[in-house]
Amino acid sequence: MKAQRRTVGGGTEGGKYSDRVLLTLVVPTRNEAENVPRLVRELRESLSDLDYRVVFVDDSTDGTPGVIRDLAGEDGRVRLVRREGAERSGGLSTAVTRGLDLSSGASEYTCVMDADLQHPPEKVREMLETARRTDADVVVASRYAAGGSYAGLSGAARRVVSAGSKYLAQILFKEARKTSDPMTGFFLIKNEAISGIQFRPTGFKVLLEILVCAPDLKVVEAPFDFRARHAGVSKATLRQGFDYLTHMLSLFWYVPSAGRFWKFCLVGASGVLVNMVTLIVLAEVFDAHKVIAWMFAVGVSILSNFLLNNAFTWRDIRHSSRIHFFLRGVLAYPVAVMGIGANFAVWYPLVKYVSDEFPYYAIFNLLGIIAGTSVNFILSSRLVFRPSEPRNLDPSA
């Protein structure tokens, strides 16, 4: 009963809405009393002939809940989900995921947008039409796509932070490169496409988590002009910046496919340490021949890399048997040798025919390492840790 009292306009917070609609708009709010009426009015005007509802997930400390209740009394399509106390933990991200959870199964599409009117309500119809025309799983309203603008960001500092966080996400996660604006808070998603995904929301960038957790989604962009805030003040804080970095680390660590190349590089760096320690111990402690010590060091570091890649980089790739695991370990050696060969093939000609003076040979060595690492990663992905294919398509197997 407590959950029912916190939800105004129909339905219950603990379950799905009984009436299914085409589109649910999820709007997280915190102290947006001056913006909510205009947002509802503009949505009503632009979506007049569509079957939709607006769900406000509210954490406000001002009169915003009362304003939304009044609007819900006038328009049955407006719903309020009021969060109290510990429910607010996680802030904007958990507010969005609560709305996504409520809309799942209750509508075909969900659009997430802010209440401050920086996300133009009239854009929602275009995003919905784009999704239906292209059969996209996600339509991203992008500030950085051709025809878009981020002029509404207040001050040079916020623009730098916005661009920097975007590029950081795209460097770390290849899934973020599907869109020019993976950090936007304005997007439309087909509910069926994210059914069953368990989110770990931290910070305020839910779209990035959706892209990383469901890497096969079809993504289409819709450029838009990011407008200046209509009323109220921005909720951006230094703490949100810290939460963003924490979220990035969480996705990197907990999602097996996320940032796989960088995980591979971390394992490779540990392999350098294993190689050096083995070489020095064999040569200095056991007085082994330097060449023999080097060969053992290379062999041990390759084995170390394989085991760590199996447990960390490709931990989502399972082995069909112990023999399969052993064969993959054996295959890791020629793959590593080909990586070393690629390194040498880049480094040696540059040193021989360009310059062997400092700092050129060091720069060429770095280029060789990049080439060798890339070749090793590609071959490891396609050969050593290639997903096992079932021998038959029997669904009961």
Order of strands in the sheet with most strands: 1-4-3-2-5-7-6-8
Our count of helices gives: 12
Task: Report the count of strand segments.
Answer: 8
Poorly predicted runs: 1-6, 10-14
What about the largest sheet? 8 strands, mixed
Order of helices and strands: HEEHEHEHEHEHEHEHHHHH
Shape from CA axes?
elongated
Q: Mean pLDDT score, rounded?
A: 87
Report on this model:
The chain is α/β, with parallel strands linked by helices. The chain contains twelve helices and eight strands. Strand 3 (52-58), helix 3 and strand 4 (78-82) form a beta-alpha-beta unit. The longest helix has 32 residues, at 322-353.
Keywords:
single chain; alpha/beta; 8-stranded mixed beta sheet; disordered N terminus
Write the layout of secondary structure elements.
Blueprint: H1 2-6, E1 7-8, E2 21-29, H2 36-46, E3 52-58, H3 64-74, E4 78-82, H4 92-103, E5 107-112, H5 123-134, E6 138-142, H6 156-172, E7 187-190, H7 206-213, E8 219-223, H8 238-254, H9 260-285, H10 290-313, H11 322-353, H12 360-384
Parallel strand pairs: 2-3, 2-5, 3-4, 6-8
Antiparallel strand pairs: 1-4, 5-7, 6-7
Helix pairs in contact: 9-10, 10-11, 11-12
Structure summary:
The chain is α/β, with parallel strands linked by helices and 397 residues long. The chain contains 12 helices and 8 strands. Helix 10 packs across helix 11 (322-353).
